[in-house]
Amino acid sequence: MNNKHRKTLNRIFQDPVLSSVPWMDIEKLFVALEADLFEGHGSRIAVDLNGITAVFHRPHPSKETDKGAVKSVRRFLMEAGITEDFQGENNAQL
User: Fold this and answer.
1) Which residues are bridge partners to 55 per DSSP?
2) Would you give the end-to-end CA distance of the chain in angstroms?
3) 63, 24 contact by CB (below 8 A)
4) DSSP state of 17
5) pTM
6) Which residues on adjacent β-strands are paired with residue 21?
7) Most buried among 8, 15, 28, 44, using CB within 10 Å?
8) Is the sign of the CA dihedral 68, 69, 72, 77 positive or negative?
9) For residue 89, what pLDDT is reported?
10) Residue 87's pLDDT is what?
11) Distance from C-alpha of 42 to C-alpha of 18, rounded to nearest angstrom
12) What letter does residue 74 receive in the DSSP assignment?
């Protein structure tokens, strides 16, 4: 995970919940966490991470993710074993 991914992760876990997290940053975080992403119908995207699968809707026409979606992403990450202080493989040896 690079610094931008870490900032996105921190924003997802921030309280109070933010409504200004760009969806593309969240998708890039999923990729950095080595999740599998599958395109669904319309704006749906399925994400599989550590054996946990969730389906999200890409926001449109806005690029920003609303608070409810950020909460859903947070819950999904936690179920997949990812927390705010997650280091990732690349940083685990530091």
Assistant:
1) 46
2) 13
3) yes
4) P
5) 0.89
6) 65
7) 8
8) negative
9) 58
10) 72
11) 25
12) H
